[in-house]
Structure of Molybdopterin-binding protein:
Amino acid sequence: MSTSFRFRGFSSLAHDERVTARIGRWLGIAFTVCFVTGLISHFIQHPTGLFAWPSRPVNLYRVTQGLHVISGIAAIPLLLAKLWSVYPKLFSRPLVRSPLHALERGSILVLSAAAFFQLFTGLFNVAQNYPWNFYFPAVHYAVAWVAMGSVLVHVAVKLPVIRTGLRKDPDAAAKPDDHFGLSRRGFLRTTWLTAGVAVVATAGATVPLLRNVSGLSWRSGKGSQGVPVNKTAASAGVIDAARDPRWALEVVTPSGSRTFTLAQLAALPQTTADLPIACVEGWSQSATWTGVPVGDLLRAAGSAPGAEVRVISLERGGLYATSTLPGEHTADPISLLALRLNGEELDIDHGYPCRIIAPNRPGVLQTKWVQRLEAR
Ligand SMILES: Nc1nc2c(c(=O)[nH]1)N[C@H]1C(S)=C(S)[C@@H](COP(=O)(O)O)O[C@H]1N2
Ligand SMILES: [Mo]
């Protein structure tokens, strides 16, 4: 190429396989963590029988889903930096040199599109609280496979270049006066710093120590009784039904049924446990819950702890109006039908007269305003 005219952007030292490989390594790690933790969350919500999720440790889902959101957030600046480091290649000609080259370019196109889709729809979901309702989780799950599949193809095709890129010293042969802007090290440091800031800014939604420094952890600590609210009683349309003095819990099992008024529930032996609400959006918060173990209610109605239970809310038609409590959970004595939160009667926005709170579960399965339990 003639040196009399050079487009300055292309001459940046960061457009280099040493930079791309180093950022790519972290992006690969972030994508893998995000994919695996996403699969875990998916299979807890859509059980297959092949995958049983335990009820302990109580905070495990809090950690896996926190990692899902944090690794996704970290991947956004990494992806942008990686694309910046390679974008001059978009202008290289001929467009396609060989079948392998076609596969390589095609997989990069699919990979970039899928990655952008995942990261930005995920971000919107975290920020806006289900703007796509039912549609989002299904599509997010399907595109995850496309993204991860094209990552694998990309890494396999690029392995030789990745190896050379990682072996070479980023500082070698850098003549800053020939070039415009940052050194390669400088570009890498800026990338790590940006990803770090993005992580700290969101991690406070789930890591208590970071709460005060996390500008983006909008959910923590707000809401009645010191716990965030995700769907109020008003928006669920349950205020009248929840406050109706004729309300009674129905417990139905194959060998008998019982109903319990609120006073009868409160008169049963109570269990108190510190358990988190761990929302799929990545925020989580622990609180002190008091109520009746679901296993005790099953026994009272003729079944036994360990039976799978369908939980049905007073809410009509909402996506989260029902949930299934697997046997692992009904056998755990701290899987509660909670009546109290942080020492007070449950606020109506947290599920009064009673709600499910079970250990190591996604928040979306902690059904509020419970009306009926059906054991299988
Ligand atoms: N009936 C019903 N229960 C529900 C929901 C809902 O929309 N309807 N939302 C769930 C979700 S997504 C979460 S994160 C938790 C939030 O509980 P909280 O509002 O008490 O923090 O409740 C769960 N229980
Ligand atoms: Mo949630």
The two ends are 74 Å apart (CA to CA). The chain has two domains: 3-210, 226-375. The chain has a mean pLDDT of 89.
